[in-house]
Design goal:
Helix content is 28%, strand content 28%. With 89 residues, it is of the alpha+beta class. It has one domain. Pfam families: DUF4160.
């Protein structure tokens, strides 16, 4: 499970798809007991437990600030390119 980055105890992961492709680039975000998938392009929480307000704001800021890098990471990982596993932040 490649780690895209970590900030303030919030960890962002991106998985390589195996089998049918996902239709939406997304990250898995974990913070303590909280876990959920977020769309990279929109910041929408796709599933999982709602995060505390402070962490939710931080997640949204990270998704906006690192959107292009996260999208590149996601696409590289799906194509299994070597640079896809280096954390972004």
């Amino acid at each position: 499970m490649p780690k895209a980055g970590e900030i303030c105890g919030i960890v962002f992961f991106i998985f390589r798809e195996i089998g049918a492709p996902h239709h939406l680039p997304h990250v898995l975000v974990k913070y303590g007991e909280y876990k959920g998938n977020f769309a990279i392009e929109t910041g929408e929480q796709l599933n999982g437990r709602l995060f505390p307000a402070r962490q939710s704001k931080t997640i949204q800021k990270v998704l906006v600030l690192h959107k292009e890098e996260l999208l590149k990471f996601w696409h590289n990982l799906q194509q299994d390119t070597p640079e896809s596993t280096a954390p972004i932040f």
